[in-house]
Amino acid sequence: MEQTWKRIDENLFDSSAHYYIVLAKMLDHLLRFLHPLRDGNCRPFLLFERMEYISKQLKAKIIIDIDVGYSENEGYTIRKFMLDEDEQFENRYKQAALIICKELFQKLPEKIEFYSLLNGTCRVVTIAEQDYKQALQTMSWKNSFFLKQKFLVV
To answer: By CB count within 10 A, which of 20, 31, 97, 132 is most buried?
Structure first.
């Protein structure tokens, strides 16, 4: 957090006090969101990992950052920390995560949790097999569109 936060210009805030208040709130939210992982029920197997994968079905490279992946009972959950809520980002992230997870782990996550560090909220998306099929269709369409336009999907 310290490395990333140093790159943020303090002049973007109303005052130095505002800068440090926002920083303190974000750190508080992050610690609160990470604390439940210390339970005996959650067993993290990914922690701030960049996943790069060339999808055989899409014939495209997909890159996502998984902040936390943890197993519970028979399944697993992906947790993503975001600065603020962004529904479009969440949808794109969900599509990429489902394709990578299905192809690498041969199993979809039970859910994806999106945490906003600025306001301390959490949105949980429960995953169904239909979500994977929809993600493949959407990513396939986007991939073919960008290839026709001479762009690469990364």
So the answer is: 97
